[in-house]
Amino acid sequence: MPSVVQFSLLLVLLLAVPGQDCATARVQRKARSSARSGCVKDGFSRCVDLAKLQQLIQDVQNGFKITSHDERILLKTVTFDKIKKHKKYHGCVLLKIVDFYHEVLQRQDGDYTDLWGLLDEVKDCVPRMKKICEKLYQDAAGKPVNESKIEEDMELLSKDAAILQLQRLKAASRKVVELSERATLDKAMGELPGLDDYIQGKGLRRS
To answer: Rounded to two decimals, what is the model's pTM?
Structure first.
């Protein structure tokens, strides 16, 4: 006849097995969830290698001085973060940022083939939202924005921030393409090191 101790041990084992199964199941569910979400880890995205992009940017930027932050082309990060939280605004703005830097790199001495290729990958990683982007671009072309208020207003709407960024890119692009203005080219290259932070957001697909 089994002793009380043996019976107690058997009971503990019976209770422990289901608990272990539940813990294992939780781990498996978490792993499957992470795989589905395509989460970014250590600077890598399933869609674009952000770590490699940052390294290329650093290599390119070493030959340029960081210019004054007055009259920035890219918004301050605290303002741009408002755009990054919204997929449609961030994606549409991201496409224009990549186009702008293509124009800038075209007018620089040196071989930027690798950086150009990764920027193309970024563009391919933006979900297709043609009609939404066209509407936003139209709004940016026809709506004046109070820049001084934009940079200071913590209650700023994401759409207004997106419009301001598009307007700044358009103005800078004109100086680069039509005027080949050296100061604007240098400013764009000076702001290049922070580009990977502007790229990461809801407008960038992760798979």
So the answer is: 0.73
